[in-house]
Amino acid sequence: MKSVLLIGLGRFGRQMAEKLRELRHQILAVDRDEGRVNDILPLVTNAQIGDGTNEAFIASLGVRNFDLCVVAIGDNFQSSLETTALLKEYGAPFVLSRASSEVHAKFLRRNGADDVVYPEKQMAQWAAVRYSADHVFDYVEMTRDHSIFETQVPAAWIGKTIVELAVRQKYRINVLATRTGDQLEFLPGPMHRFRREETMFILGANRDVQKFLNL
C-alpha cells in the first residue's frame, strides 16, 4: 500500500482516485473546487480544498511523506507546471504529471516531473491500433517497438499445439497467456493445444505482430 497525493480532481483525477482506491492505496486528494472535493470524499482517505500553486499550501502537505504525487490538472497548464515545480522543490520523491502535448511534457520534465502521462494521446493510439486491426481485442504498448496484443486464435491453429506450430520460431512472437471466458492460463506450455473459444495474449516486436495479424 502506498500513500498518494492527488492534485486535480477533474475527470482524469477522479478516474485515478477510483483506481487507486480499488488498489487499496491511501489517497489525499486536493482541488481548488469545493464541489469536486466533496464529491471525491467517499473514494479517498482524505481530501482538502487547496491551490497547488500556493507555496505555503504545498509546504503544509508534507509532500516528502508521499510515495507518489500526481499532478492531474488538465485545464490550466501554467498551474500544472507551477504545482509540479513546487512539489519537487519541497522534496516530493516522485511526481507524475499530466500533459496534453509533447511541448507540455518537455516543460513539465524540465520543471521536475519524474514521469508524464498523456491520456488523450495514449487513448488515441490505443483506439487506432485496436480498431484498425481485425480480431484485436486489447493492446498494451510495452516500449516504442514492442507490445502485447489480445487477439483471436487463427482458425488454422485450432487443435494444434504451440510446439507443432513453432510459434516463436516461425512468427517471432511469444504466447504469454490464453483466455477462455474469464479464465486465464498464464505462460501456456509447448503442448498447449489451441481451442476455438480461446483468445491469446501475444508479445513481440510491433512489425512482427503486425505481420502475424495480417496473415
TrEMBL record:
GO terms for biological process: potassium ion transport. One of its GO terms (molecular function) is monoatomic cation transmembrane transporter activity. Residues 1-118 form the RCK N-terminal domain. It comes from the Bacteria. This is TrkA family potassium uptake protein. It comes from Evtepia gabavorous.
